[in-house]
Amino acid sequence: MPWAKGPRERIRLLEGLLSERRLEGAVISGKKEVYYFTGFMSWRLLLPTYLFLRSGREPVLFTGLTDAALASQTFGGRIEVYENYKLEERMVAYPGYVASESEKFIRDYFAGATAIGADSWNLPHSLYAALQRSIPNVEVADISQDILAMRTIKHEDELELISKSCELADKAYAMARSLVTPGRTEVEIYSEIHKELSRLVGTFQYFAGDFVSGERTVAVGGPPTSRVVKEGEPFIFDLWVTTKEYWSDTCRTYVVGGKAEEGLRKLHSIVLKAMEAGIQMLKAGATGAQVYRSIHSVFKDAGYAEFFPHHAGHGIGLDGQEPPFFIPRSSDVLKPNMVVTLEPGLYVPGVGGVRVENDFLITEEGPKQLTKATMSL
Q1: Which of 40, 125, 190, 339 has its CA 20 to 30 A from that of 138?
Q2: Domain check: are 43 and 76 in the same one?
C-alpha cells in the first residue's frame, strides 16, 4: 500500500533527526508516537505496536496479526506481525510476550548497529531488555524530547484533524448555550452534549473537560456532577474534543438563564480584554513567557492578578497540553504551523469564575483563530 502523505513526511523528519544525532536507527514504542509516524493506532485497548527504523532500510511496523490490514492503509513500509489472538491459547498479547516475539527480528534488522534512538519516555522495560539481549553492545539514546519538539510543528493532515475538532467544539457550545437553564444538573447538560456529538460523528466520540457551575467555578474546573444549576450563576465549559486523536481545547462561560449580574459582567469584560492582549502577542518569534505576561499584565493593571492562578495557554495536537507552554518562565518560541490556545480566566470568591479559551494557528502573517463560538455570557 502507498504511504499516507503525513506519516511519510514525518518518517523523513525522523530519518533526518537520526542522521543529525549520528544514530543508526530507532525504536518507537509510544502509542501516540507510533501513530504520529505511521498513521496507525489500533482501536484495541492493549495491542503493543512498535516502529523500527534502520538507516538505509525500509521502516518496519511490528503489530498484531488482527490489525495488519488496518495498518497497511496508512503505513507504506514493511509490516511484521505477531499472533496477538490465538483461540487455543491467547486472548491478549502483553508487552513481555510481544518483546520476546520481536527478538529475532531485532537481531537481524539491527545487526551491527552500535547506537540507536528510542522514545525512552515510553519504552517498555521488556522491549529494552529484548534490545539488550538481541544487540548486546548497542547504545540506546533517548530521542523523546526531539520527537516532542518535532510534534509542535503541525503538518497539513494534522491541521485538518485539529480544525475538525474545533468545528465540533463550536457545535458543542451552541448546544451548551441552549441547555444552560435552571433546574438541570451539570451531568445532564454534559450528557446531552455528548450524545449529540456522538450522533454527529457517527461513532464513539471522546468528550471531556471542565463542567462547573455556581460556586464550583471559583475552583477553576472539575467534572460534571449532580449539582442543579440556578438562575443567574456562571457555568464554565472547558471542552476537550478530539478527531482521530487530535485535540481542540476551548472554553466558554455562560450564565444560567442568560442574565448576568454586574460582578460577572465586569470579570468577563476584563477576561476578554486579556484575550485580545494575548492575541496581539501570538506571532512567530515570541516566547511563551511573553505571551503569559501579555495576559497577566491586563489582570494586574485591573487589580485582579491574584485571581489568575494558572497558565495563559499552551500548544495542542496529539495531547491536550503540549509545548509551547505559556507560563512565566517559558522560553518556548512560537513558530509557524504551531497550534496553541489562549485561556485567560478570573476566579473571585463571592462572584464566580469566568474563563474563555480559543485555539489559534500560528502563521507568518499572524494568528488564525480556529474556534468561532461566541464568547458572550
Answers
A1: 40
A2: yes
Give the pairing type, strands 207-213 and 234-243: antiparallel
**337 and 204, same domain (yes or no):** yes
Containing structural domain, residue 185: 156-369
Cα–Cα distance for residue pair 226/82, rounded to 1 Å: 46
Asked if 165 and 293 sit in the same domain, the reply is yes
Same domain? For 179 and 35 the reply is no
C-alpha dist (Å) from residue 13 to 150, 153, 167, 236, 293 = 8, 11, 29, 40, 33
Residues 169 and 285 grouped into a single domain: yes
Nearest to 217 by CA among 362, 315, 347: 347
Counts for the chain of helices (H) and strands (E), in that order: 10, 16
Helices 156-179 and 186-201, packing angle to 10 deg: 140
Residues 137 and 174 in one domain: no
**pLDDT tens per residue across span 12-50:** 999 999 999 999 999 999 999 999 999 998 887 678 999
Helix (H, G, I), strand (E, B) or coil at 233: coil
Contacts of 317 (CB under 8 A, 6+ apart): 151, 152, 154, 158, 162, 246, 247, 339
Q: Residues 145, 160: one domain?
A: no
- Structure confidence at residue 150 (pLDDT): 98
- Tell me which residue has cell 485567560: 344
If asked whether residues 133 and 166 sit together in one domain, one would say no
Say if 185 falls within a structural domain. Answer: yes
Its sign, for the CA torsion 263, 264, 267, 270, is negative
